[in-house]
Amino acid sequence: MATIISGKEVAAKVRAEIKKDCEALDEMGITPGLAVIIVGDDPASRVYVNNKKKACEEVGFVSEEYALPAETTQEELLALIHRLNGKPDIDGILCQLPLPKHLDEKAVINAIDPTKDVDAFHPSNVGKIMIGDYDFLPCTPAGVMELIHSAGIEVSGKNCVVIGRSNIVGKPMAMLLLHENGTVTICHSRTKNLKEICAAADILVAAVGKPKFVKADMVKEGAVVLDVGINRDENGKLCGDVDFDEVAPKASFITPVPGGVGPMTIAMLMKNTLKAAKLQNNL
Ligand code: NDP
């Protein structure tokens, strides 16, 4: 039976370290500030934004929420971002995605000052990640790496398979594993022989968005399995992309859903906001 890597526990440790760092900044008169923009009334986005604000409070950051109506125009949203770019007490800016259909997400991401881009979605930050010389790492893949490190798992030389190639999870995830000298394969919806490729992985990361997609026959005996997915099963219960009950007996390490990668994403956002505050203050 696999050892369960608790994201809840690791995230709590990360947040405690950030809080300590924040107290040290406080003595220098610096309080990290995060601006969170939410457009419209998507219930899932509202939950994420509330969790992010709560996490800020817990570590001692200031958070400012900008809740805009669904009919906000592109010009209005860009004007807000430009104002926040120039606001000295705001170190990080986050625009909760997805945006309503009439808004251009790419233009919005591009408008955020890269030094305040705590989601690390701006093309300049994406490029920096590619060359391994970055200020911010995207929160979810960084959270997965932190879980791997916390369990003392060595990536170097390992056969790593990432299922999913989104810009926010799959692609940067593969890059971070590569930076640690993993031999990385990225799979997607057009991949042939998915089962065989996954079954050869020492480290398997699932970021598919399909409930219980990864079954036992896709997993090698003793593999490390990291589940990024957040889905609802047929009974409406939260579940990952991995069929936990089937896969756990075969894996050496596995992350649960909930309580795995999810809590790490917010902890990494706090880490990036702290970094942004240090950057803004030339520390
Ligand atoms: P996307 O929908 O953007 O990407 C899904 C990827 O899975 C795509 O690359 C797609 O391939 C691939 N895929 C879909 N079907 C198959 C298939 N049958 N076989 C192989 N690959 C397939 O999702 P995200 O990357 O944004 O998110 C993935 C999951 O992670 C979701 O459940 C999401 O909710 C969750 N998530 C969790 C976070 C956390 O904090 N824990 C944060 C962000 C996301 P193709 O490109 O060919 O279409």
| Oligomeric state of this protein | single chain
Mean pLDDT: 97
Global shape: globular
Number of strands: 11
Radius of gyration equals 19 Å
Name the helicity range: 40-55%
Task: Give the uncertain stretches in residue-range form.
Answer: none
The assigned structural class equals: alpha/beta
Identify every distinct bound molecule in the structure, by name, code or SMILES.
NADPH dihydro-nicotinamide-adenine-dinucleotide phosphate
What's the total helix number? 10
Strand content: 15-25%
Helices and strands, in order, run as EHEHEHEHHHEHEHEEEEHEH
State the strand order across the main sheet: 1-11-8-7-5-6
Distance between the termini: 45 Å
Main beta sheet, described?
Answer: 6 strands, parallel
Q: Can you give a write-up of this model?
A:
This protein is α/β, with parallel strands linked by helices. It has helices spanning 7-27, 43-59, 74-85, 105-111, 123-131, 139-150, 170-179, 194-199, 244-247, 261-280; strands spanning 3-4, 33-39, 62-68, 92-95, 159-163, 183-187, 203-206, 224-227, 231-232, 238-239, 253-254. 43% of the residues are buried. The mean pLDDT is 97. It binds NADPH dihydro-nicotinamide-adenine-dinucleotide phosphate. NADPH dihydro-nicotinamide-adenine-dinucleotide phosphate binds at residues 140, 163-166, 168-170, 187-191, 194, 207-210, 228-231, 261-262, 265.
